Amino acid sequence: MTDTSAPAPAENEPTDDEIFEQKAVRLAKRERLISERVDAAGGAYPVSLPVTTTIPALRAEYGALEAGDETGVVAGVAGRIVFSRNTGKLCFASLQSGDGSRIQAMVSLASVGEESLQAWKEIVDLGDHVFVSGEVISSRRGELSIMVTEWQIAAKAVLPLPNMYSELSDEGRVRSRFLDLIVRDQARQTVVARSKVNASLRQTFTDHDFIEVETPMLQVQHGGASARPFITNSNAFDADLYLRIAPELYLKRAVVGGIDRVYEINRNFRNEGADSTHSPEFAMLEAYEAYSDYNGIADLTQELIQNAAIAVAGSTTVTWADGTEYDLGGEWERISMYGSLSEACGRTITPDTSFDELAALAEAEGVDVPAKVATHGKLVEELWEHFVKGELTRPTFVMDFPVDTSPLVRDHRTIAGVVEKWDLYVRGFELATGYSELVDPVIQRERFVEQAKLAARGDDEAMRVDEEFLRALEHGMPPTGGMGMGIDRLLMAITGLGIRETILFPLVK
User: Fold this and answer.
1) Backbone angles phi, psi at 80, to 5 degrees
2) Cα separation, 259 vs 116, whole angstroms
3) Rounded Cα gap, residues 252 and 505, in angstroms
4) Is 226 in contact with 271 (CB distance < 8 Å)?
5) Alpha helix ranges (H) inside 371-440
6) Beta bridge partners of 77
7) How far apart are CA 305 and CA 329, in angstroms?
8) Consecutive 10-residue averages of pLDDT for the chain (509 residues)
């Protein structure tokens, strides 16, 4: 008796014509299933099946069986057929569960009879969901198996699976994630990792007495970040609405209302470019803690990320998809934006450095900042990215940003011209940002007015004056530390994957 635990790679993928022919053959088999069913009015497939356990559970309990062992235990399991080999009196199939676990089904003449064996050969195809029942054994080659005494088609794949032993293209993985999940372990592992990350984040917040809330995705005015919004129209209200670019202004309303520790894991939408670190639709975490500041919220952010890494990898040292190890442990360095820029470019840059001097330096370095958005702060940030960003390897908090690019942030308590804001860089990209929040409604109104001037000059990312938010601040908001972090980017930092791999169903053109 032989089995098929190590099949050879399949031939090249079928052509469109071959797929069309296979579909026709498989649809004919579906018609046969309908004609042979006693309750044919119910369709081709059974509504339920006598499943008694799962493939992962069987592997956990009987995975250590020696070759040739028999258990005397009868189990009923279901799975998708990902390999099949039919011989004269014995057929083999590998059944795969949703988590990628597999078990071998052995369909023999002696166990099921001639009619059932012949039906298996004629009806069952790769990709079909099949129920099998029989004794749990280990084959002569040590493969955990079901010696089948009964089987049924649970659902037929009328389209063939892709080659199980060759990679889908990058584009194919994104456009047909359902196939990617079937054929590639990494795709399934990433889904599990994301779930573990979200559970870990929520647990860390619970441990710190935070409350999770939900805020509107449809907003009458966009704000909370510098980003270009998606615009839609409400028939019921006869008004333009904006898809949320950030939940910040609503979460701060919650702090005004007395929810001192609040967070939200949400969907944000930004009508901007898409690349390896940006997606028009993405998952965001934002959190606010009353009577904290940007230092306290940085400590919390480090703890959130390190706990998430441990939840996924068992350690703060994670292994990326390419095999590279990356250390997220320890205390993360905190560097000054102006100080690190000065050191990197070889000249002193301060909040008092003139616009003309910064513009001349940008031109000399080939750093392009469009005139309609060019300010002192914008030039400083672009020059910092040019000189410093690429040199960061360890997780690093970049502290103290220019005031004119941070309209929602409190002025620095000791340094004029900067605000108490940090950006966290991991793996060379911005992972999170944190503030000592601006809570003075008078200064906030002044900042909004300056933003409105930029919008009038053509800056699509500038904020507008939000009177409702200002009214909330006028009722008193306590000193607060706040942070925002992309969940997709957190997965990137832990797994080493690109953003389209960390999003289960990313938007594609």
Assistant:
1) -90, 135
2) 65
3) 31
4) no
5) 376-387
6) 132
7) 9
8) 43 76 94 79 82 97 96 97 93 96 97 96 96 97 97 94 78 85 91 97 98 94 81 92 92 97 94 81 96 98 98 97 95 98 97 96 94 90 96 96 90 95 94 96 90 77 83 97 96 93 86
Distance CA 194, CA 487 (A): 8
Both structure tokens of 414? 């000791």
Residue 13: per-residue pLDDT: 66
Q: Which residues contact 425 (CB under 8 A, 6 or more apart)?
A: 389, 392, 395, 396, 398, 431
59, containing H or E segment: helix 55-62
Helix ranges, 257-354 (H): 294-313, 337-345
Cβ-count burial of 50 within 10 angstroms (0-12 exposed, 13-18 middle, 19+ buried)? exposed
HSE (CB half, 13 Å, CA atoms) of 366? Answer: 0
Residue recorded with tokens 């950030």: 246
Q: Measuring CA to CA, which residue among 215, 269, 218, 272 is closest to residue 247?
A: 215
In sequence order, the 6+-apart residues with CB closer than 8 A to the CB of 21 are none
353 Cβ contact list (under 8 Å, min separation 6): 376, 380
Residue pair 56/99 in contact by the 8 Å Cβ criterion? yes
Q: Residue type for 374, please?
A: A
Going by the annotation, the residues of the binding site for Mg(2+) are 423, 430
| Per-residue confidence (pLDDT) for residue 507, from 0 to 100 | 83
Strand, coil or helix: 300: helix
Calculate ∠ Cα 115-120-125, nearest 5°. Answer: 160
pLDDT number for residue 1: 47
CA distance from start to end of the chain: 51
Amino acid 42: pLDDT: 61
pTM above 0.90, yes or no: no
Query: Strands 317-319, 281-290: parallel, antiparallel or unpaired by DSSP?
Result: unpaired
Residues flagged as binding site: 423, 430
In contact, 153 and 129? CB cutoff 8 Å: yes
Q: Taking a C-beta distance cutoff of 8 angstroms, is the pair 483, 424 a contact?
A: no
